[in-house]
Each structure stands twice: as structure tokens, then as C-alpha cells.
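Reopening this ticket.

The earlier resolution said the output was attached, but the attachment link was broken on my side. Pasting everything inline this time so it's all in one place.
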Amino acid sequence: MLIPPDAEALYTRLLELVRSWLAEQAEEPAVVGIYAGGAWLAERLHADLKLATPFGVVSSTFHRDDFATRGLHPSANRTALPFEVTARGILLVDDVLYTGRTTRAAINELYDFGRPARVDLAVLVDRGGRELPICASLVAAKAQIPVTHMLALERDEADTMRLVFRMEKKTV
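Inline output:
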């Protein structure tokens, strides 16, 4: 049985990495989470770091390369960027980096709102398996996860700020 990584321990590591990274930035970037796990992380990072700029959420739904086969999920989430994207530094946040396809789609969606000065990527887990030349600047952990399995971040039902990973076998 595969044991998923400790999401809370990884979040603490990511928080420290982002805190150090922010100290090196000339201007505070906007934190943008990729829906859904990345959005939860962005919300929490924003609160813990007490950032001035509101955090944003970006949906990759309309830019996915498999949109034609997956279609639009009835609860498709929308992008919400409560700040000007053009010429701003962006810290894009996601839970798991795998093939790079979701990140590519999220960046395409971000560019629909303007041209950022820079986009950096922060993730809890990099599981390898890249299909596109995308890498994260800030990575809490690298993990070897079989291609037959999926790592999903969830919010704890009792405490919605607490995060947990669930490992499950892929159905397709």
C-alpha cells in the first residue's frame, strides 16, 4: 500500500521557501493558485505571509489540451484575479506538478488577462513525469509515485485550512 506524503509538513516547507524567496524580490508578486489544490495553497500562503495584494485563482479548464474529450464540468470554476496582471510578477501555486499540462493551461489562462512581468511556479510535490518543459522554482518535495496512481490534495472536513493528500489508483 502506498502512503501519501504529509501535506501539512510539506506546506510548512513550502511556506518557508516562499518566505525566503519573497525576501529576495524587488516587488511583492501576486500569488495565484491553480484551481483547486493550488487555490487552497494560495489562500493559505496569502494569509500566513500577510501579503498586501489579494490572492488570485486561475482555472485551466478552457485551455486544457483534452478539453474536447473531457468537456466542461458542470461545476467548472472561474478565474478570479482581483489585481492587474500586466507587468506584475506572479507566483503561480499548485499542489502537484506532474506532466506540466495543467500548468501550461493555467499560464495560457493567466495571459488572457494580461502579460505578467514574470511567472514563477511553486508546488508542494514534483512527481516527475514531465511531458512539457516546465519546472517549478519552489518545490517542497520530490516524490516517486507510480504512473498507475494519482496524488490528490484535499481539505480536511473538520478543519478546512488543514490539507491532506490522498493516494488513489487511476481509473483510466
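Reporter confirms the inline version is readable. The chain has a mean pLDDT of 91. The chain is about 25% helix and 25% strand.
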